[in-house]
């Protein structure tokens, strides 16, 4: 298990490049998919592109979801205001999601070394541009780590059909160990730096 408190030195195989593999993680809501992706992003020193999602809470009550890119841009994915496609009690802000999230992924395909995506879910799939971009992400020569909602059987089928792809089911028991396992699958060698206190 990798401790977040320990510095990590990365050495990439294949002359400094990460293996062009596809890593998919699925699991129940709240099990830790987003946290896993963020922890992976902290361990990968190469240029990253993509985004993750997070809850918006007001006075302890969830009122929506935001997206945040790995270069710091933020936007609203869904909230309780009227307008936009409905997913559950939320309305998806498709235009804002495409402006920030989809553009971020398109840029990552051009410029990033590793693409990180959290998540492929019912809200994100309301975007036509996002749906259209998925084949490019899946078949890109660049490594991809993506989470997807457990109930999306068609996404799992697509993931399992890819060469050099693997799908993990994240649970409370394995979520810490998955950080190391996915780094290994990407071809990332790492070693804990040692030092003395004082």
Entry summary:
This protein has 198 residues and is an alpha/beta fold. The protein is 33% helix and 33% strand.
Please characterize this protein's 3D structure.
By secondary structure, this protein is of the alpha/beta class. It contains six helices and eleven strands. The chain has helices spanning 13-16, 33-43, 94-111, 128-139, 153-161, 175-186; strands spanning 8-12, 22-27, 48-58, 61-69, 74-79, 86-87, 90-92, 114-120, 144-149, 165-169, 188-192. The strands form two sheets. Strands 6-7-5-4-3-8-9-2-10 form a nine-stranded mixed sheet, sandwiched between helices. The chain has a two-stranded antiparallel ribbon with strand order 1-11. Strand 4 and strand 5 form a beta hairpin. The two termini are 26 Å apart. The model is unreliable at 1-15 and 190-198 (pLDDT under 50).
Features:
single chain, 198 residues, alpha/beta, nine-stranded mixed beta sheet, 6 helices, 11 strands, globular, disordered N terminus, disordered C terminus
Strand and helix layout:
Blueprint: E1 8-12, H1 13-16, E2 22-27, H2 33-43, E3 48-58, E4 61-69, E5 74-79, E6 86-87, E7 90-92, H3 94-111, E8 114-120, H4 128-139, E9 144-149, H5 153-161, E10 165-169, H6 175-186, E11 188-192
């Amino acid at each position: 298990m990798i401790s977040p408190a320990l510095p990590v030195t990365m050495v990439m195989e294949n002359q400094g490049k990460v293996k062009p593999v596809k890593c998919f993680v699925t699991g129940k809501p709240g099990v830790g998919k987003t946290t896993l992706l963020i922890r992976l992003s902290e361990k990968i020193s190469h240029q990253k592109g993509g985004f993750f999602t997070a809850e918006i809470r007001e006075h302890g009550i969830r009122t929506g979801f935001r997206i945040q890119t790995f270069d710091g841009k933020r936007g609203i994915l869904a909230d309780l205001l009227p307008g936009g496609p409905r997913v559950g009690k939320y309305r998806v802000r498709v235009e804002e999601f495409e402006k920030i999230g989809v553009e971020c992924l398109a840029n990552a395909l051009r410029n990033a070394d590793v693409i990180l995506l959290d998540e492929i879910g019912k809200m994100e799939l309301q975007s036509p541009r996002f749906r259209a971009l998925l084949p490019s992400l899946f078949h890109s020569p660049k490594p991809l780590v993506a989470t997807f909602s457990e109930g999306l059987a068609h996404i799992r089928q697509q993931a399992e059909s890819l060469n050099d792809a693997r799908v993990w089911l994240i649970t409370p028991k394995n979520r810490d160990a998955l950080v190391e396992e996915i780094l290994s699958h990407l071809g990332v060698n790492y070693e804990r730096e040692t030092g003395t206190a004082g």
